[in-house]
């Protein structure tokens, strides 16, 4: 993971040369009605063997990008390159890209084995070879012996595995997945996430994955492109997205986050002071502000706020807060506070043995460092 | 639960669970029954009873036994080898006298005439003079009409004295009883129903195939266009239903006749000479064209309802897996539409073998269906027994097709609309 994060600047330097990246979107735009852009200038380089996720709320344009890569939608503007060659005019069946669909799209009138054999038959492989590859693919998704069943006789998770096997059986170098786990329940979804990760690691295949589930994206991806409103808000590794969101949308969309609104009153490259709307002053790290007088949203992760007993040490910001509500969540406690003019300020504290029980109405001191408090766009 | 029948489940107060359940659902069952009762009653009176009547009429044979009761009894002892004795003739004279008084011999004479030509005049002629004759009746009757002196006449009367007969069904398939009682084909020049049945079936097959050919792409568009466009297309498909069937059929006459729109256009364009105008109406071509048009919606709608349930991702999956467009269609999409094809096919086929008005109007002599002969026997020849037998055969064929369809596809897989 760290390797990917470090490698990130390289990609940006290398983006002009095509041989390091496997698939590219170059300034791709897409409009369905000629009036609105669904995708506004999408750039993405995918390296060979990488697992890249397009993450965003529904309607943000991420599935459209996937469909353009697969060849089911044509870009209104821009180029899509695969192994250095533009594929804009190439029909879907000549692209050799495996795809897993949201509702699996297993052919209901064929058995599992026939489903898996389909991509091999259209490639005119020999019967023996088809059988060998189908069996290997079934073994890969741990469904040996299920070849004669019909898709309708399988559970959702099993159908998902078959769909995965079918997208991989003809050994494509790139596999696209369109919210493949959306129809599964939570436990199965988590199990399948690890399954897909394992297969990705085993085969070294390049994967482009679309989801609106941030946990899924964080668990599986090498890099995540956060989409909103047809634009990539940030493209980075999971750690970077979580620890260092570049704008308010990413901070809000990835993980939980406290948001405080205010105006920059003092500014330097490394630190700024923000006067909140209720008058409190907070020290923050300037990320998306550039001078005094700008409105900003401060983003602060709930787990980076500490409860201070006695003398404070090393906290740039310290406030007195009133406890509104405590929710017990087993491994941690989620406490809602009234502080800095907000009633929705949340902190998370580990459920440690020495932890004093908080009650609604208690007044406590909380604090956080300037580094953890990021001044983003308003 | 079912593996312990010795201890049936009971509710908390000891009532067996099944009894309790029956009580609980009785009210709702009763309500459901009341809701369908008017329609049920209507169907029984207006649909099931006429069908029963039709089936009954196709084998019903009351004429001989009711008009010649004494003769029938007297003939019971007859050996069928030589002419019957005087008592039989006496009984016949008695019966004819009674029949002439009651003026009830018309049906009998027609009925016997179906079996043996000349019997109408034999019966009616003898009856007119029955008051004048005196015993011995045998000579007197043979004197009036030679038919009474032939063994075959008596064999027919004896055979048809049974209250049921298969002779209508035999006639429907161009067969008859020979005088000696064997089943034989009617002479070639009288064979008409077989040709008509065959023509009805193969033309219905052609019509079904044409509706499929024309309807499949339309149904595909209907199922895959954006809603705004598909709604418009759906209205166009349903538009014919808002026009009278008669109007649609006569429109085809206006278009297809030799001085019609199409021929005029072709002549004007120089495609055909004025003397060589196409004969497209009052023959098989006319029937096929008009009926294909009229039955097209019945193919499109079941196809559409099946295609609507096929998500576009199936074709996309097939394409992404490397299938060319046509191959993906043939291997993935087409097999999934088979229930729709079967449903539309069976619907159009059954409708068209029972179609009457369009072949009657545009079919001419060569494009007529068996249904037109049912109407002929109902209205013109008044041989209702034969009409009922032909109609019963059609009903039987439809039921067979339906059962085969149900076996192969399953009726429950078909949704309309």
TrEMBL record, chain A:
SUPFAM superfamilies: MOP-like, P-loop containing nucleoside triphosphate hydrolases. Belongs to the ABC transporter superfamily. Spermidine/putrescine importer (TC 3.A.1.11.1) family. Part of the ABC transporter complex PotABCD involved in spermidine/putrescine import. Responsible for energy coupling to the transport system. Keywords: ATP-binding, Cell membrane, Membrane, Nucleotide-binding, Translocase, Transport. It catalyses: ATP + H2O + polyamine-[polyamine-binding protein]Side 1 = ADP + phosphate + polyamineSide 2 + [polyamine-binding protein]Side 1. One of its GO terms (molecular function) is ATP binding. Pfam families: ABC_tran, TOBE_2. It comes from Modicisalibacter xianhensis. InterPro entries: AAA+_ATPase, ABC_SmlMolc_Importer, ABC_transporter-like_ATP-bd, ABC_transporter-like_CS, Mo/tungstate-bd_C_term_dom, P-loop_NTPase, PotA-like, Transp-assoc_OB_typ2. The keyword ATP-binding applies. Gene3D superfamilies: 2.40.50.100, P-loop containing nucleotide triphosphate hydrolases. Residues 23-254 form the ABC transporter domain. PANTHER family: SPERMIDINE/PUTRESCINE IMPORT ATP-BINDING PROTEIN POTA, SPERMIDINE_PUTRESCINE IMPORT ATP-BINDING PROTEIN POTA. The complex is composed of two ATP-binding proteins (PotA), two transmembrane proteins (PotB and PotC) and a solute-binding protein (PotD). This is Spermidine/putrescine import ATP-binding protein PotA. Its EC number is 7.6.2.11. The keyword Translocase applies. GO terms for cellular component: ATP-binding cassette (ABC) transporter complex.
UniProtKB/TrEMBL annotation, chain B:
Gene3D superfamilies: MetI-like. This is Putative spermidine/putrescine transport system permease protein. It is found in: Cell membrane. The chain crosses the membrane at residues 32-52, 201-225, 232-255, 288-311, 332-357, 384-405. GO terms for cellular component: plasma membrane. Residues 197-405 form the ABC transmembrane type-1 domain. CDD domains: TM_PBP2. InterPro entries: MetI-like, MetI-like_sf. Belongs to the binding-protein-dependent transport system permease family. CysTW subfamily. It is a multi-pass membrane protein. PANTHER family: ABC TRANSPORTER PERMEASE PROTEIN, INNER MEMBRANE ABC TRANSPORTER PERMEASE PROTEIN YDCU-RELATED-RELATED. GO terms for biological process: transmembrane transport. Keywords: Cell membrane, Membrane, Transmembrane, Transmembrane helix, Transport.
């Amino acid at each position: 993971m760290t390797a990917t994060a470090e490698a990130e600047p390289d990609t940006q330097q290398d983006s002009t040369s095509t041989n390091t990246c496997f698939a590219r979107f170059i300034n791709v735009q897409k409009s369905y009605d000629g009036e609105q852009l669904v995708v506004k200038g999408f750039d993405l380089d995918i390296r060979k063997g990488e697992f890249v996720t397009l993450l965003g709320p529904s309607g943000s344009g991420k599935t459209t990008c996937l469909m353009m890569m697969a060849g089911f939608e044509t870009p209104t503007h821009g180029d899509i390159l695969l192994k250095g060659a533009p594929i804009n005019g190439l029909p879907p069946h000549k692209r050799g890209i495996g795809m897993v669909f949201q509702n699996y799209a297993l052919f209901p009138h064929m058995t599992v084995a026939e489903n898996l054999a389909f991509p091999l038959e259209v490639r005119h492989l020999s019967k023996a070879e088809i059988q060998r590859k189908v069996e290997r693919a079934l073994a890969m998704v741990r469904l040996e012996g299920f070849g004669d069943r019909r898709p309708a006789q399988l559970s959702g998770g099993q159908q998902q595995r078959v769909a995965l096997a079918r997208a991989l059986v003809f050994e494509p170098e790139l596999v696209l997945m369109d919210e493949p786990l959306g129809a599964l329940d939570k436990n199965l979804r988590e199990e399948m996430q690890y399954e897909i990760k394992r297969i990705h690691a085993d085969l070294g295949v390049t994967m482009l994955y679309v989801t609106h589930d941030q946990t899924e994206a964080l668990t599986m991806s090498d890099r995540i492109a956060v989409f909103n409103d047809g634009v990539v808000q940030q493209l980075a590794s999971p750690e970077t997205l979580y620890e260092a969101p570049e704008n308010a949308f990413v901070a809000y969309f990835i993980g939980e986050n406290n948001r405080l609104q205010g105006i920059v009153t003092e500014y330097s490259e490394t630190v700024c002071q923000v006067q909140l709307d209720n008058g409190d002053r907070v020290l923050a790290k300037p990320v998306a502000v550039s001078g005094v007088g700008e409105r900003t949203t401060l983003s602060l992760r709930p787990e980076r706020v500490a409860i201070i007993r006695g003398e404070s040490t090393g906290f740039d910001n310290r406030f007195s807060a009133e406890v509104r509500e405590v929710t017990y969540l087993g491994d941690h406690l989620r406490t809602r506070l009234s502080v800095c003019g907000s009633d929705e300020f949340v902190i998370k504290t580990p459920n440690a043995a020495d932890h004093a029980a908080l009650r609604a109405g208690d007044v406590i001191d909380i604090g956080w460092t300037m580094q953890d408090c990021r001044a983003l766009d308003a | 639960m079912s593996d312990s029948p010795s201890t049936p489940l009971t509710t908390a107060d000891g009532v067996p669970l099944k009894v309790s359940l029956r009580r609980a659902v009785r009210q709702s069952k009763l309500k459901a029954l009341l809701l369908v009762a008017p329609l049920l009653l209507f169907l029984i009176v207006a649909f099931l009873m006429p069908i029963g009547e039709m089936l009954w009429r196709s084998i019903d044979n009351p004429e001989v036994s009711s008009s010649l009761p004494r003769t029938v009894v007297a003939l019971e002892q007859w050996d069928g080898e030589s002419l019957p004795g005087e008592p039989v003739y006496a009984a016949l004279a008695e019966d004819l006298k009674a029949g002439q008084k009651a003026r009830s011999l018309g049906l009998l004479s027609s009925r016997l005439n179906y079996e043996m030509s000349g019997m109408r005049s034999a019966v009616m002629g003898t009856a007119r003079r029955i008051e004048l004759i005196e015993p011995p009746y045998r000579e007197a009757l043979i004197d009036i009409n030679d038919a009474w002196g032939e063994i075959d006449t008596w064999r027919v009367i004896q055979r048809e004295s049974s209250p049921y007969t298969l002779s209508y069904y035999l006639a429907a398939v161009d067969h008859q009883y020979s005088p000696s009682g064997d089943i034989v084909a009617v002479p070639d020049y009288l064979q008409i129903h077989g040709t008509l049945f065959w023509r009805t079936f193969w033309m219905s097959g052609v019509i079904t195939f044409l509706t499929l050919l024309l309807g499949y792409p339309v149904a595909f568009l209907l199922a895959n266009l954006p809603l705004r466009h598909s709604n418009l297309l759906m209205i166009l498909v349903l538009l014919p239903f808002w026009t009278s069937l008669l109007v649609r059929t006569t429109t085809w006459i206006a278009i297809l006749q030799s001085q019609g729109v199409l021929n005029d256009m072709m002549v004007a364009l120089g495609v055909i000479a004025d003397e060589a105008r196409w004969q497209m109406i009052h023959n098989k071509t006319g029937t096929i064209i008009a009926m294909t048009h009229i039955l097209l919606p019945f193919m499109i709608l079941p196809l559409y309802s099946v295609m609507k349930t096929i998500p576009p991702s199936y074709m996309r999956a097939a394409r992404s897996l490397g299938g060319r467009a046509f191959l993906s269609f043939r291997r993935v999409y087409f097999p999934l539409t088979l229930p729709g094809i079967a449903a539309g096919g069976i619907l159009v086929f059954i409708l068209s073998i029972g179609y009457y008005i369009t072949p009657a109007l545009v079919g001419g002599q060569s494009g007529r269906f068996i249904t037109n002969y049912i109407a002929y026997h109902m209205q013109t020849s008044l041989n209702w027994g034969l009409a009922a037998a032909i109609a019963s055969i059609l009903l039987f064929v439809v039921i067979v097709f339906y059962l085969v369809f149900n076996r192969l596809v399953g009726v429950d897989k078909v949704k309309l609309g």
